[in-house]
Structure to design on (106 residues):
């Protein structure tokens, strides 16, 4: 169940980042409300996952998945460019997340 909680937390982390961008420095009401709400939900689910997972593994995967989702959706929604160095860096993050998942029980 911890991995499901962590995945839910990562989804809300992505929503937080995207809504923070849409809030324009917290000057727009509804994106700001979404940003604060998704932050609370994300941290809540992260805390549930950390009841079982090591904090180093859980937090790193949470931020990694949040980063990957934010970059991917940022490119789609906000037309941000994904350059070759960015793509290589994303692949490194994915490799790290997979490696942490595989060694989480070790």
């Amino acid at each position: 169940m911890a991995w499901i909680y962590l995945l839910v937390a990562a989804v809300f982390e992505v929503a937080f980042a995207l809504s923070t961008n849409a809030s324009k420095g917290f000057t727009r009401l509804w994106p700001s409300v979404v940003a604060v709400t998704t932050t609370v939900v994300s941290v809540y689910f992260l805390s549930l996952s950390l009841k079982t997972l090591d904090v180093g593994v859980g937090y790193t995967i949470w931020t990694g998945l949040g980063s990957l989702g934010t970059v991917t959706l940022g490119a789609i929604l906000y037309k941000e460019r994904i350059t070759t160095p960015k793509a290589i860096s994303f692949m490194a993050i994915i490799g790290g997340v997979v490696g942490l998942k595989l060694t989480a029980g070790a």
